[in-house]
């Protein structure tokens, strides 16, 4: 009985001591600037260029359709004198259908669930996932309790530079990219060497 009381007392004392040490440590907070990180990563720049070229192509496609619409309206206005009221009505309906097709195309390309949003998600989401994985690793290694994104919509009124881990995240992304590039170069050399042997 005495042994159980001593061990229970010891466990309780150790628990309180570890709780006290944890409470004295305080909360460790860090932050990143996701916009700065993504702009510093070469893959993001390439993905942004791909997205920008697609957006330019889609805008050009829509502008061409608008020019066609304008030509159809001008042609109807020029021929209005010689057309019957029924033909004028038919042409106006065709023009309205064409105009609604343009609106549908704009929605398809640039709407809330359009091609631009889908392509941005496909191109940029893997990079954001990579950043989040690295942030989690750093948080666990350096024992951060919270890490905020300074560039997000959440309000951060003040941030000391010594808590900014953005540069550390960029260094790790670049290190992973260099390792991946080396692996690809080794694979190319292996395939080249095996092709020379045959």
Please explain how this structure is put together.
The chain is mostly helical. The protein has one domain (24-197). Helices cover 78% and strands 4% of the residues. The protein has 6 helices and 2 strands. The chain has a two-stranded parallel ribbon. The longest helix has 38 residues, at 42-79. The radius of gyration is 31 Å and the shape is elongated. Mean pLDDT is 81; it is low at 1-23.
Number of separate structural domains: 1
Q: What gross morphology would you assign?
A: elongated
Radius of gyration of CA atoms, rounded to a whole number = 31 Å
Distance between the terminal alpha carbons, to the nearest Å?
A: 80 Å
Give the number of helices.
6
Mean pLDDT: 81
Low-confidence parts? 1-23
How many DSSP E strands? 2
Helix content: over 70%
Strand order of the largest sheet: 1-2
Residue share in β-strands:
under 5%
């Amino acid at each position: 009985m005495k042994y159980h009381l001593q061990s229970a007392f010891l466990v309780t004392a150790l628990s309180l001591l570890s709780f006290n040490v944890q409470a004295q440590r305080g909360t460790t907070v860090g932050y990143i600037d996701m916009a700065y990180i993504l702009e510093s990563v070469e893959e993001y720049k390439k993905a942004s260029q791909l997205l920008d070229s697609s957006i330019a192509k889609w805008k050009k496609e829509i502008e061409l359709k608008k020019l066609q619409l304008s030509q159809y309206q001008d042609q109807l206005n020029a021929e209005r004198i010689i057309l019957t009221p029924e033909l004028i009505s038919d042409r106006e309906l065709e023009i309205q259908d064409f105009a609604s097709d343009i609106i549908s195309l704009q929605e398809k390309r640039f709407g809330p669930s359009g091609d631009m949003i889908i392509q941005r998600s496909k191109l940029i989401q893997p990079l954001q996932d990579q950043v989040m994985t690295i942030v989690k690793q750093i948080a666990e290694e350096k024992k951060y309790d919270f890490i905020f994104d300074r560039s997000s919509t959440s309000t951060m009124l003040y941030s000391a530079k010594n808590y900014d881990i953005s540069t550390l995240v960029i260094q790790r992304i670049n290190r992973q990219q260099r390792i991946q590039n080396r692996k690809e170069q080794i694979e190319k050399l292996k395939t080249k060497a095996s092709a020379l042997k045959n």
